[in-house]
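User: I'm writing a short report section on ligand binding and want a predicted complex to refer to. Could you take this sequence and magnesium ion and write out the structure as tokens? A short remark afterwards would be nice.
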Amino acid sequence: MTCDATSTAAAIRAVAAVIIEHKVELTRLDRDIGDGDHGENLARGFTAVLGKLDGAEFDTPAAVLKMVASTLISTVGGASGPLFGTAFLRASTAVKDLPELDAQGIVTALTAARDGVVARGKAELEDKTMVDALTPAVNAARAAADAGDDVGAVLRAAAADANLGADATIPYQARKGRASYLGERSIGHKDPGATSTAYLLGALADAAAGVS
Ligand code: ADP
Ligand code: MG
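Assistant: Sure. The structure tokens for the complex follow:
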């Protein structure tokens, strides 16, 4: 199975639905260690993405990803808007004009997304950010693709390790973003951006498996 422009658009619709479904939870997590807007920010962005998908035709997966990037950058705001925007933009650039993504293409896109977030936000592992979900996801995806897994299994592996990575942020002290202002008081809470990243990847995996 590969992922063409149409299935990429369908997968992004699935992501939007899951982010909107978890809006309140994501905002609650951000209330604990931030300013309580993460779910609202992302739901606003993905609602705009849904609007841009309606009636639109895209030639390549990269074209879909580029539209998501520009829409998130212009609508999400906060720290996470430019970071998610960069992730989608780098993923788009990395897969060029390929008509379909295979398992290695997914790895290329995820790796570029993670590298873009790190380049922009300068977070290291265990800084309690979305990087703590993205990096394990990239590593799991690469291992799965190298073992010969298909697109669905690669995304499933990425989502599973992103989930573990998000859970693992709970004991960390935040060293980047708003949560870092709390110092030790950020310990004991799950990072909102790592959580939304895990939901996003889970939605992609479900879409690839035809679950949603
Ligand atoms: P803001 O903090 O501006 O209100 P959001 O609430 O939308 O923005 O997003 C907060 C999330 O952004 C955090 O939970 C964290 O995962 C992520 N984040 C913040 N700063 C960075 C950074 N420098 N690198 C990576 N991720 C970051
Ligand atoms: Mg916030």
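A remark for your report: The beta strands are 3-4, 100-101. The first strand starts at residue 3 and ends at 4.
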